[in-house]
Every structure is written in C-alpha cells, then in structure tokens.
C-alpha cells in the first residue's frame, strides 16, 4: 500500500483550502491553517512532509514564513501558492528554499504533477537524512570532519579523555577551530552524557555577571537581583559538563572561587549562607597558550593544573589544508538541507579559491562562507564567481602603517565607553566590516568583539 503523506495547507481562503483538501485527502493526511502563526504551530507539532504555502497571508507574508518552516527539523518540502505570477516573489521563494510554486486558480493536472514531484522530493530527502544519521552513528562522532593527522590525534585524545568522569580538559586553538565542538564531543562520549552540557563564554560578560551566572544568587543579593534569586550554571550543569570558553578572561577572584569548587565540590551562591553541593566536570578553552599566560601571572597556576589534566591543541585550518575541501562539501550538504538547495559540489576554480584563502576565522569562517553562497546562489556547483568576496592571500589585511595613534579629546570630556564604541566603529569600517579581521586588528578575542558590536548596537 502507498504510504500516506502529511500535507499542510496554509491559506486564508476557506473555499480554496476545502477544494485542495478534496483533491488530496483520498491519498494523504491533510491539515489546514488559515494564518501563518497557526501554520507554524501545526507544522512544529505534526511535522508535515509537504506544505502548500500561500504568499499573501493575513498575518505575515508567506515569503517571511518560508525560512521559518525550512529551519524546522525535519525540514518540510514547501510549494508556494501565489495569486498572480509575480516573478520577483517566485524567484525569492525558490532562493529561500521553496521546491516549486503554483498559481491560483490552480490547474488540476499541473497541481497533481507538482504535488507528486514535491512528495517524491520529500521522500528522497527523508531517506538521505536517515542514511546520513546512520553514517554519523557509524563514525561515532557527529559533525566532526577532518582527516589531517594532527586533527585525528586531537580527536583520539578527546575520545580517550571522555572515558574519565572528572579529569579537567583544556582545549587550545585559535578562534573558530572547533573547540566547543570538541568539548561537546567529550561530553557526549563521557559517563556524564545523560546530564546537561552548559557553556559559558568568560570573555563576553562583566565580572559581576559571570559571578552571578556561575554561582547564582540568593534573594536580594544585590540591587537589580531577581526577588526569587537565581540558580547558577554550576547547578544547572550538575552531574554534567561545564564548558568555560575563553577561560583566561576569568577575574582572579572568580578563579579562586572556581578552584574551591573544584577542590571541595561545594560553593556558596552570591549573598548566600547555605552551601550547595555540585558534581561537575569542567572542560575549558583558550585561544592562546594558557600555560604561557600562567607563567606571566595572568592566570592562577593551581587552577591551571586542575583545568589542564589533559591538554588538547587544535590546529588552525591553515595548518590542515587537506581538510578545507571535505569541510566545504560537508557544509554544502548542511546548507542544501537547511535552505532546500541542490548544490552538488565545487567547480575547480572554487576549489582553488578555497584552498588558497588563508582562513583567519578558521572553520567558522569557512562555514559562514559556504552558508552565504548556498543561501544566495542557485547553481549546480559552487563557482569561482560566487566566492569573489574572499580576499586573495595576503591582500585585504590591515597593513601596519607605523602611524602614531592619537585621540582628539573633546573639551567637555568623554566617557570611556563612548570612546571604546567610536574606536570599535572605526576599526570595523577600516576592516571592511569583517569581524575576524577587526578582532585581530583590535587584538581582541572574536567573542569579545561580537559582544561589544552587539552591546553598542553596531551589529545585532
Ligand atoms: N571539524 C569540524 N567539522 C565540522 N564542523 C566544524 C568542525 N570544526 C568546527 N566546526 C564548526 O565551525 C564552527 C565553529 O566551531 P566552534 O564554535 O566549535 O569553534 P571555537 O574554536 O569554539 O570558536 P571560538 O574560539 O570563537 O569560541 C561551528 O559551527 C562548528 O560546528
């Protein structure tokens, strides 16, 4: 017997929905929504194979809605329905991942053919998803791509360190090399896998916020504290793994408190008098050599030894050039799936450009690059011209000018924050709004820059 597919019709015209229902319900399970919001709700709950989506809905445009449907997992196949053949809308919809479109009034033969094709596509996609999951299970490590010997050594070390429940693991490597992914790998392979994995970026917040985030606080601990108090991440992660990113940025006082937690397995929340017990493993990350910083007095030695029982060094992408193309192909698949696109691979020129680029932002930069191309372009392969925005090696980097840096101070005085914002804005413009370059230019960890760009409303 043919399998019944789930089809969701999102359209505000009741007679039109009823007509489509009559055509489809003999062979399929049909659901209806008269608004976008209702459509999202049903789709979230019912996971339809196919959505017939009107472009002109009362509460939001079908074009806005489309990416939200495509983000859902499993992602449904979507066919757009439009009142007139507005070519601009249709092109936009296909770019955003719609499989096809139908124009009202719908011609029955064309309708049947489109539905049949769309359901075939949905079926194939599900099969590909299922096979992909199987392959990932076989390899054991979800989403970790790389065959370079240094990378494989790091992976082996991570898997071995996961056997221990408590040993501190320090992961070092430049921004975007995959430190957090490794931390998750250690967690999911460890005896703590059934408990939470909680990440905190120690560079992104002020010391006070980090302290209250980590340790939580009791009622009325400080002005602005929530009346009922707040549970700290140490407790949220209880039983599991706490991932401390950019650990070098922890204030010395917090370093001391954290050391006590590791030694005594208990702590006081901010403003609290009752001790809380906690059982966690800490995996931390740093994009500089933490031992060197420790020797310079920027990090406590005793804490370093606790955190770095095992040290894993991740190579930059430049140091493992043979992994660039396999990673690019992996991301093409990921974003084909996300945006409903059908890129098959890379043209020789695109391969060349990707291998020649210096990848200062490492795997994250490569992933963003491929996402941008898959989202914006529609071709069989990723082509050289799609990658025009990658600067050739050595070009586009801010050149050292040897100029002395001077600041014009206004008569009426200026707040340090205002000055910081101004400098970040100028640097961001100078570096062509490239975040990795700006971070290097300002000698800031990328996370810190991202946080500040957001804080000052320069980017969201
Ligand atoms: N080997 C890999 N295979 C697949 N995806 C990867 C790999 N390495 C990194 N990524 C992806 O690249 C992006 C950046 O990785 P991640 O956030 O783990 O880097 P990071 O070193 O922790 O960065 P930061 O120092 O800025 O916090 C993520 O989307 C991650 O999934």
UniProtKB/TrEMBL annotation:
A biological process from GO: regulation of DNA-templated transcription
Any one Gene Ontology molecular-function term assigned to this protein's record: sequence-specific DNA binding
Gene3D superfamilies in UniProt: 1.10.8.60, 3.40.50.2300, Homeodomain-like, P-loop containing nucleotide triphosphate hydrolases
Domain Sigma-54 factor interaction residues, every copy: 144-375
Assigned keywords, A-Z: ATP-binding, DNA-binding, Nucleotide-binding, Phosphoprotein, Transcription, Transcription regulation
Residues covered by the Response regulatory domain: 6-119
PTM sites of type 4-aspartylphosphate: 54
Superkingdom in the source lineage: Bacteria
Official protein name in the record: Two component, sigma54 specific, transcriptional regulator, Fis family
